[in-house]
Amino acid sequence: MAAYALGRNKQLCRPRKRSELDCIGQQDHWHTVCRTPTLTGLTAGLPIQTTIGPATRLIYLAYQAHCDVMEPVQAMAAAWAAALAPLDAGAAQNFTVRCCAAGCEMLARAGLSHQRPAFGIGSIAVGDREVPVRERVADATPFGTLLHFKKDVAIEQPRVLVVAPLSGHFATLLRGTVNTLLPEHDVYLTDWHNARDVSLSRGRFGLDEYVDHIIRFLEAIGPGGHVVAVCQPCVTVLAAVAIMAQAENPAQPQSMTLMAGPIDARINPTKVNELASSRPIDWFERHLIAKVPARYPGAGRAVYPGFMQLAAFMAMNPERHVKAHFELYSHLAGGEHDKAEAVKAFYDEYFAVLDLTAEFYLETVQAVFQEHALPLGKLAWRGHRIEPRAIRRSALLTVEGEKDDICSLGQTMAALELCSGLRAYKKRHHMQAGVGHYGVFSGRRWQNQIYPILRNVILASS
Asked: Are 133 and 122 in contact (CB under 8 A)?
């Protein structure tokens, strides 16, 4: 009866007043936002009790100690690289100098960043003129910011919420996605915060809270908006839109685009899927969850560290990353600065990592990759079953990459069948030939082949 009540309770996902929204992050805020009893759905609404194994209990401290030891070494290497740079006039006899400078720079770069890089989108070409772009905070909670890329243009453009993945990297990984959307759309982005910088007193952040944030941000944008989910949040975005449809929330989006996300991870399982389903959830708790060290604002919070997530990503294609760094050294030593800058720009972004709350990571693994709760009709939000078939107003576009080794063909397309309440003309699928996971939302094929389809869906739905 709880699932039936969700569709009848107009207060459950009604537009909330600012006084209600401001309480996000407090321990008991969900009883204020949701005017119905908080039942046990994906989570129990309390901070997750993790079982951290002896091997991982000190892993964050060991990582931090390593960083502390390497910091002066890397600073000295950076100083030597800067000192050697003027000695290279490009002549062949300076090859030894360039090799030494390249080695110093490689050592200086041998580390990770835990701060979000800048988006660096100062202006964008709109028609025949260059328009300034300003980053504005449209809404914020302790766990995420709704970032608005504001432009001064004469005409009203479709409002688009881009939901970035919370999977170890910052939202700047979607810089290219935003840059492509900006000329013809009013773009908003979920800028997730590093969990190690969020005080433990701010409460938990699991799948339920993630869905709450998406609903909140869509309400902040207002009725008539559109949503684009990239990779991991496809499941939670579909869930949020279904919840809004069940409650007849006026802010439900006019279109929903799901790109390379694991709606049904049972289809053509990848190495990522197999790893997630090969061990019980308590194994992940014991081996991959650590506590934030005392020096950070989030001290004591249980997290899945970003450096561990990055290691998992790199372990999927170690040869590719080793080759890229050998090539970077060769470019630096050979004086090919343009080629070197391209490689450095990619890894500056790739090596900027954030921590995930333990509850969000573990619930994602369990609900999405182990229990396949959404395609089996078992996914719940605050004790209420989620019904994708309730979606009738939001047009749906799913996008997949032919060579995607993280989210394989068919997994995102499964959303079309789940959204059975949508008429056929409101559903569309696109399989992009020749691209892997990142090529779905960045690069030339995204710009020239995928984006025009997305733009047309948004225009047709506006």
From this structure: yes
Q: If you average pLDDT over residues 28-46, what whole number do you get?
A: 33
pLDDT in tens, 396-411: 999 999 999 999 999 9
Determine the structural domain holding residue 173 and report its residue range. Answer: 1-462
Give the residue ranges of DSSP H helices in 140-185. Answer: 175-181
Number of domains in the chain: 1
Phi and psi based region of residue 145 (left: phi greater than 0; alpha: psi -120 to 50; beta: remaining): beta
Q: How far apart, in whole angstroms, are the C-alpha atoms of residue 231 and residue 364? A: 13
Average pLDDT over every residue of 189-213: 97
CB 175 within 8 A of CB 162: no
Read off the CATH number of the domain in which 61 is found.
3.40.50.1820
Judged by DSSP in three states, 230 sits in: strand
% of the chain at pLDDT higher than 90? 72
> Are 100 and 84 spatial neighbours (Cβ–Cβ below 8 Å)?
yes
**Can you state the angle between helices 306-316 and 318-333, rounded to 10 degrees?**
90
Cα separations in angstroms, 434 against 9, 178, 278, 319, 440: 46, 22, 29, 20, 10
Residue that the structure tokens 């050697």 belong to: 84
Q: How many whole angstroms separate alpha carbon 239 and alpha carbon 367?
A: 12
% of the chain at pLDDT higher than 70: 86
Each residue's pLDDT tens digit, 112-158: 989 999 999 999 999 889 999 999 999 999 999 999 999 999 899 99
- Which pTM does this prediction carry? 0.85
- Cβ-count burial of 38 within 10 angstroms (0-12 exposed, 13-18 middle, 19+ buried)? middle
Nearest to 235 by CA among 210, 254, 216: 210
pLDDT reported for residue 90: 52
The answer on pLDDT for 17 being more than 60 is no
What is the C-alpha to C-alpha distance for residues 267 and 74, in angstroms, rounded to an integer? 45
Q: Read off the DSSP letter of residue 196.
A: G
